């Protein structure tokens, strides 16, 4: 039992949240709230322009810290140096085209750009601007320069911009920004851009097999792990196609093509079509093993009699079929990653079940999760093992699902690098 004294408690991660002067500044309030509520100590450093959109009082109330913008505030504390030196992470959201340009060229004309120069921790810039500004050669060069220095510049989303315009340049939603922030805090380093030029396919969620127009057979998969895999791959530079089964509650990751699917048969067709020519396929979806032999055309009514038994038949094994078609030369994809949700039994451990499944499926890598008792399904965190067909067994410690995703892409990138 701890005494509860401050010196007995671990210090919370220190995050500097920079806010640029764009209409997307309103999303910074939600980023700030999510970070503080999850135990982070956040200092907000807006630009003067940002305060035209959100007042300092709002940031102060949500963070519990005073807000300053200039280097001549609290000079005795040398804020323009100390904030960057002491931070565990710097997040700038939104990062406007002007702010990106100033950061790329080492400007230090306000508290935020000075903090960026003194920071020796991971730095995440989250762009938000009109499409023409994002696609301008000056902005593209500035982004490339920052990335070459180890700064993580997130991919902007496509969608509604200021006014009637729509296109690429929309700031990703706060949950995605916070997820990336948690990943960078856990990794303590920048995300590599090692998947640039690669096309990957990820499946997510749980398939459903209809009994009638109302009812279905399904499973508890929320799709969070598959979405984390897609999100991390996109921010590592990949072109990502996400085959999502019943994940309406989740926000599509920025820069990812979303392909909705419903049943196991629909997922099978999508996987076999999309996998051809991809560099890697990661099968994180929970695919129903069985489906009803017959689907009622109308809702099955409740009567006084017991219901008729539901006859089931096997669904296609999508992972095994993908491997077979690949090995037969019908689909061109060099690397396939499977997922196995397992429970142990008196005779066999979760890990041994996973090894047996890897041998049966024939894929190159397999992620094994222990499920049940609030683990893996419908939660924010995950753990497990990454098994390779070369005999490797890499434990994946408990943490955010984005951290497990990063472990998977590390292994994928290493294997693709040798091809």
From TrEMBL:
It holds the Pfam family DFP. InterPro entries: CoaB-like_sf (IPR035929), CoaBC (IPR005252), DNA/pantothenate-metab_flavo_C (IPR007085), Flavin_trans-like (IPR036551), Flavoprotein (IPR003382). Binds 1 FMN per subunit. Residues 1-199 are annotated as: Phosphopantothenoylcysteine decarboxylase. Pathway: Cofactor biosynthesis; coenzyme A biosynthesis; CoA from (R)-pantothenate: step 2/5; Cofactor biosynthesis; coenzyme A biosynthesis; CoA from (R)-pantothenate: step 3/5. Residues 200-419 are annotated as: Phosphopantothenate--cysteine ligase. SUPFAM superfamilies: CoaB-like, Homo-oligomeric flavin-containing Cys decarboxylases, HFCD. NCBIfam families: coaBC_dfp. This is Coenzyme A biosynthesis bifunctional protein CoaBC. It comes from Saccharopolyspora cebuensis.
């Amino acid at each position: 039992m701890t005494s509860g004294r401050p010196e007995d408690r671990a210090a919370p991660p220190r995050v500097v949240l920079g806010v640029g002067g764009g209409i997307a500044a309103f999303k910074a309030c939600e980023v700030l709230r999510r970070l503080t509520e999850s135990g982070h100590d956040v200092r907000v450093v807006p630009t003067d322009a940002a305060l035209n959109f959100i007042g300092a009082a709002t940031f102060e109330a949500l963070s519990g810290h005073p807000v300053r913008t200039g280097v001549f505030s609290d000079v005795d504390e040398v804020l323009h140096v100390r904030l960057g030196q002491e931070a565990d992470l710097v997040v700038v959201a939104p990062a406007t085209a002007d702010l990106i340009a100033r950061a790329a060229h080492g400007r230090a004309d306000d508290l935020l750009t000075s903090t960026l120069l003194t920071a020796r921790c991971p730095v995440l810039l989250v762009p938000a601007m009109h499409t023409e500004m994002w696609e301008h050669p000056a902005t593209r060069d500035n982004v490339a320069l920052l990335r070459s220095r180890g700064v993580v510049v997130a991919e902007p989303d496509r969608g509604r911009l200021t006014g009637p315009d729509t296109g690429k340049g929309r700031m990703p939603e706060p949950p995605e920004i916070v997820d990336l922030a948690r990943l960078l805090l856990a990794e303590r380093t920048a995300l590599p851009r090692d998947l640039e030029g690669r096309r990957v396919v990820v499946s997510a969620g749980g398939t459903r097999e209809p009994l009638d127009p109302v009812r279905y057979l399904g499973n508890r998969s929320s799709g969070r792990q598959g979405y984390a895999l897609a999100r991390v791959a996109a921010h590592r530079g990949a072109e990502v196609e996400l085959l999502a089964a019943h994940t309406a509650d989740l926000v599509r990751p920025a820069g990812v093509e979303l392909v909705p699917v419903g049943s196991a048969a629909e997922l099978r067709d999508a996987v076999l079509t999309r996998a051809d020519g991809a560099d890697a396929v990661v099968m994180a979806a929970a695919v129903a093993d069985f489906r009803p032999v017959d689907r009622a055309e109308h809702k099955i009514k409740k009567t006084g009699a017991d219901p008729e038994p539901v006859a089931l038949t096997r669904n296609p094994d999508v992972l095994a079929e993908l491997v077979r078609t690949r090995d037969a030369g019908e689909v061109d994809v060099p690397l396939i990653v499977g997922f196995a949700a397992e429970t142990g039994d008196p005779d066999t451990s979760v890990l041994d079940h996973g090894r047996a499944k890897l041998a049966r499926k024939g894929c190159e890598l397999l992620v094994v999760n222990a499920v049940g008792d609030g683990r893996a399904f419908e939660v924010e965190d995950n753990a497990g093992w990454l098994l390779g067909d070369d005999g490797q067994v890499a434990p994946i410690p408990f943490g955010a699902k984005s951290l497990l995703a990063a472990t998977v892409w590390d292994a994928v990138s290493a294997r693709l690098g040798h091809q």
